[in-house]
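Because showing beats explaining, we let one protein speak, sequence and backbone structure tokens together, and leave readers to judge.
___
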Amino acid sequence: MLTVYYTQGGKKYHGDEGCPAFESAQSLWDWDPPEGHPDEGPWHGGYAVRRVSERFAYSKAGKRPCLVCLPGRRIPFPATSNHGHQPAEWIARGQLVDVVCVRCRIAHWRDVWEVDGDVIRASGISMVKWPCASAIVLGVAEQSVYAELAAA
């Protein structure tokens, strides 16, 4: 189990207490008073650094992984359900066309005709390539796979 560091004021947790992003954020918060603190009263400190398990930092404190010291880190504990987002082969005319998400679709207007003054529109549905954004957010698919597809 990974031990991580965070403060109450930040939005990220860090794998190393010496992370440059962590130190920069701490220096920004050091002399800022918390909300509700009277303007005339002295304030000399920032938030205390907390050392906890990654599970606690993510699930209980609501923090996300630091992009500097934990690059490419996925959400540590993916959802128990994929909510229907899973890969499937899209086969057309007996050939594999692509790998798509079973649940995601994009509806759009495909064609417009004018017949005797009436406008007729035909809708279409497009499949969404795997991994879809929802699968990445849910932790069903890895973001690195998405980055490889986007680069291609």
User: Anything to note?
Assistant: Residues 3-65 form one domain. Strands lie at 3-6, 12-13, 50-53, 64-65, 87-92, 95-115, 118-129. The CA atoms of residues 144 and 150 lie 10 Å apart. DSSP finds four helices and seven strands in the chain.
